[in-house]
């Protein structure tokens, strides 16, 4: 499900759950553990100093696994708890994470990218965005505030309520991502940027990084179990089931 590749001081964690890197509870836990291992490796002298999160050519991540979202409530609770903990790992982790957005990145895939320190996306016929409303899911205030942090209040409100999916150039223009490069260069460029961050005076860099991400951290101090319980209780409605069933090509249950 994951490929771990070290590039000197940079560790690349490559999402490799075919076909679309859907975030199941198991996959989410594996990614959380891989990030924790990278952070632990950063504690050693000459160890990891930055992380690159990459996907497969044409697909970064399609977001939460629809089958688990619409499955039994205990499975949904496990998925949401694990996804929140993964988000906390990204937000509170001691090392910078650069997302190499190798292709499409809707919903939960966009959330992962938004929580990284820098975002580099492949040029081409790809889209990124928080399109939850289009499938009947309420994104919640935390996701809105995370988006707002990057693109501003008015634009975040417009994008989120429309469930807008943006091309790489549109995402760059509004500040959702930082760079657009050719598909073949997205991972090498992310690794190069991560290596640049790893070469900076680390005490000063980490202090400055903490300053710029302090507001983000305030949003994620809620315990995972509480978030999952609150969301799951009213997240899946009849309207949601209809939209999800249509996405899966089956009748709603």
Outline the structure in words:
With 253 residues, this protein is an alpha/beta fold. The protein has a single domain, classed as Alpha-Beta Complex (2-enoyl-CoA Hydratase, Chain A, domain 1), CATH 3.90.226.10. Helix content is 52%, strand content 15%. It has twelve helices and nine strands. The longest helix has 20 residues, at 73-92.
What attributes does this structure have?
about 250 residues, alpha/beta, 2-enoyl-CoA Hydratase, Chain A, domain 1, 6-stranded mixed sheet, 3-stranded parallel sheet, 12 helices, globular
Instruction: Output the CATH homologous superfamily.
Output: 2-enoyl-CoA Hydratase, Chain A, domain 1
Largest beta sheet, briefly? 6 strands, mixed
CATH class: Alpha Beta
Task: Report the mean per-residue pLDDT as an integer.
Answer: 91
Quick structural summary:
With 253 residues, the protein is an alpha/beta fold. The protein has helices spanning 25-41, 66-69, 73-92, 108-115, 141-151, 153-162, 168-174, 186-199, 202-212, 214-219, 224-235, 238-248; strands at 2-7, 10-15, 50-54, 58-59, 97-101, 103-106, 118-122, 128-129, 179-181. It has a single domain (2-203), classed as Alpha-Beta Complex (2-enoyl-CoA Hydratase, Chain A, domain 1), CATH 3.90.226.10.
């Amino acid at each position: 499900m994951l490929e771990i590749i070290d590039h000197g001081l940079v560790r690349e964690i490559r999402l490799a759950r075919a076909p679309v890197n859907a975030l199941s509870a198991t996959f989410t836990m594996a990614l959380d553990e891989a990030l924790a291992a990278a952070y632990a490796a950063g504690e050693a002298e000459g160890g990891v100093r930055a992380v690159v999160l990459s996907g497969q050519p044409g697909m970064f991540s399609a977001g939460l696994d629809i089958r688990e979202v619409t499955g039994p409530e205990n499975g949904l609770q496990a998925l949401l708890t694990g996804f929140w903990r993964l988000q906390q790992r990204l937000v509170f982790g001691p090392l910078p994470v650069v997302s190499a957005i190798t292709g499409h990145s809707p919903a939960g895939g966009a959330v992962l990218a938004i929580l990284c320190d820098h975002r580099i996306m492949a040029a081409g016929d790809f889209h990124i965005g928080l399109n939850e409303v289009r499938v009947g899911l309420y994104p919640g205030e935390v996701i809105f505030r995370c988006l707002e942090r990057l693109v501003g209040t008015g634009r975040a409100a417009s994008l989120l309520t429309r469930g807008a999916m943006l091309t790489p150039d549109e995402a760059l223009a509004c500040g959702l991502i930082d760079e657009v490069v050719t598909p073949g260069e997205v991972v090498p460029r992310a690794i190069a940027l991560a290596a640049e961050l790893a070469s900076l005076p680390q005490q000063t860099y980490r202090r400055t990084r903490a300053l710029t991400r302090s507001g983000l951290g305030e949003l994620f101090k809620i315990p995972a179990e509480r978030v999952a319980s609150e969301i799951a209780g009213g997240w899946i409605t009849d309207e949601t089931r209809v939209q999800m069933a249509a996405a899966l090509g089956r009748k709603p249950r």
